[in-house]
Amino acid sequence: MTRKKASGRSVDVVPPSPRRETPEPDEPDGPDPVERFRRRAGLVIMQILYGACVFVLTKAYYERPAAPPEPAARQPATAQARPAPATNPADGVAGSALSADALLRQAVTAFRAQDYATAARFYRQIIERDPRNPDILNNYALVLHYTGQSGQALEHLRTALNLNPTHQRSWLTLGFIHKATGRTSEAREALERAVAIDPANVLATEAGRMLGEL
């Protein structure tokens, strides 16, 4: 501090404090511009690669027809523990020694593995014991369609709906098969019936999605 005379009076003069330079927010002790550029370029490349991976993984999904929810794993109404003889030797599975519940588990497992021919054999054996179960008839129809037997699939769905006209899953599968085989008006009618039965559940949501694709 210095003392300065002004107009006959002494005035204390305080020198200004040295100015403190405020660094830029993103640069204190940070990397040099070249390093920052490399990091940003690396981030952009990673985003591009991620997008390419997502496209490759989902491309097949968007190119194939969407399937309805997998078959119901509901127990057959007449599930029996006693063995029943297999009437079709071409089945190639030891179905005669299995209970209906065990056959159903095998069928659902084969379906999830996309082994539709095996699933169809198991469902056929269940139907031999329980021919009036709409859930099983629906499931069998679905695997018949996946093995190229859409005509037979539609017959089994009509049987299921004759047994239970409000069986929502059968209406959904019926609409799905009609849609997949180019019968747009029939598909729309079946899917609208599926939605009307119970608009709040997942089957109605799937039916509505398919309607939007017609």
- Across the major sheet, the strand order is 1-2
Q: Which strand-content bin applies to the residues? A: under 5%
Overall mean pLDDT score? 74
Radius of gyration: 35 Å
Sheet with the most strands? 2 strands, antiparallel
Number of strands: 2
Structural class: mainly alpha
Instruction: Provide the low-confidence segments as ranges.
Output: 20-28, 53-69, 73-95
Number of helical segments?
A: 8
Shape: extended
The helix/strand order is: EEHHHHHHHH
Q: How many angstroms separate the termini? A: 88 Å
Residues in helices, as a percent range: 55-70%
Keywords:
214 residues; 2 strands; 8 helices; two-stranded antiparallel ribbon; mainly alpha
Structure description:
This protein has 214 residues and is mainly α. Helix content is 58%, strand content 5%. Strands 1-2 form a two-stranded antiparallel ribbon. Helix 4 (134-146) packs parallel to helix 6 (168-180), helix 5 (150-163) runs antiparallel to helix 6 (168-180) and helix 7 runs antiparallel to helix 8. The protein is extended, with a radius of gyration of 35 Å. The N and C termini lie far apart (88 Å).
Task: Characterize this entry briefly.
With 214 residues, the chain is mainly alpha-helical. The protein has helices at 33-63, 100-112, 116-129, 134-146, 150-163, 168-180, 184-197, 202-213; strands at residues 2-6, 9-13.
Furnish the topology, listing elements before pairings.
Blueprint: E1 2-6, E2 9-13, H1 33-63, H2 100-112, H3 116-129, H4 134-146, H5 150-163, H6 168-180, H7 184-197, H8 202-213
Antiparallel strand pairs: 1-2
Helix pairs in contact: 2-3, 3-4, 4-5, 4-6, 5-6, 6-7, 6-8, 7-8
